[in-house]
Amino acid sequence: MWLLYQFPLCPFSRKVRLLLGEKGVPYEPVRESPWERRDEFLDMNPAGQTPVMVHSDRGPLRPLIDSMAICEYFEETVEKSAMISGTAADRAEIRRLVTWFDTHFYRDITGPLLFERMEKRLVHKMAPDSKFLREAMKAVVAHLDYIDYLLDNRSWLAGSTMSLADLAAAAQISVADYLGGIDWKSHEQAKRWYIGMKSRPSFRPLLAERMEIISPPGDYEKLDL
Ligand SMILES: N[C@@H](CCC(=O)N[C@@H](CS)C(=O)NCC(=O)O)C(=O)O
Q1: What pLDDT digit, counting tens, does each position of 177-209 carry?
Q2: Pocket-testing residue among 16, 50, 101, 105, ligand 1, by greatest number of atoms within 8 A of Cβ
Q3: GST N-terminal domain location, by residue (predicted)?
């Protein structure tokens, strides 16, 4: 059985979980809080970051580390529901957008929200700084504008079929949404796309999970936003 070291609000682990769900790969989530810097976890991943995957009964298989490397591993080894497919140019566009959401959306929105609303409360016992929350809310508008723009010309974010780009974006948005950071006002296309993502069976286990102490807004799990 594959074990996935993660915590419920890690957007990179959520991307991996969505891919595993779409491909029908069974796995067991193992709770890891990277801020605790556990020795056994650092032995597995010296970077001390989630997600990490190991196989519990396949001998000394190296751990899989880094969400993109993990997704590429399962894309290469499990044929079902290809998530990086099409021509070389199609695949380049999927990878570009995955990097966009993993890097820019995380830097502008999910990362600051996780630090202000989760880590400060859980680890540092401090209140969030409203300046950073305001900046993140402003950045959400620009990112949702970009999603609207992509969907003006495409059925899915990277092209005509659902891909890892949709999973990466939905994973980041779902964490920001849990932390009260998403306002869909004036973003009908992005909202419709996200409702479609939320309705997928691969999404349901993520929406049902809770992070200790921190509760999501009332409509977090609802499909009629
Ligand atoms: N590039 C990595 C980023 C992973 C990452 O930043 N994980 C966060 C949690 S969501 C983490 O472990 N942060 C703790 C740290 O950086 O020390 C990936 O895609 O897996």
Answers
A1: 999 999 999 999 999 999 999 999 999 999 999
A2: 50
A3: 1-82
Atom of ligand 1 nearest to the CA of 110: 10
CATH of 2-77, one of 3.40.50.2000, 1.10.510.10, 3.30.70.3270, 3.40.30.10: 3.40.30.10
The alpha carbon of 184 and the centre of ligand 1 are apart by a number of angstroms equal to 27
For the CA of 65, the nearest atom of ligand 1: 20
Residue 60 banded pLDDT, cuts 50, 70, 90: low
66 lines ligand 1 (CB under 6 A): yes
Main-chain phi, psi angles of 65, to 5 degrees:
-130, 140
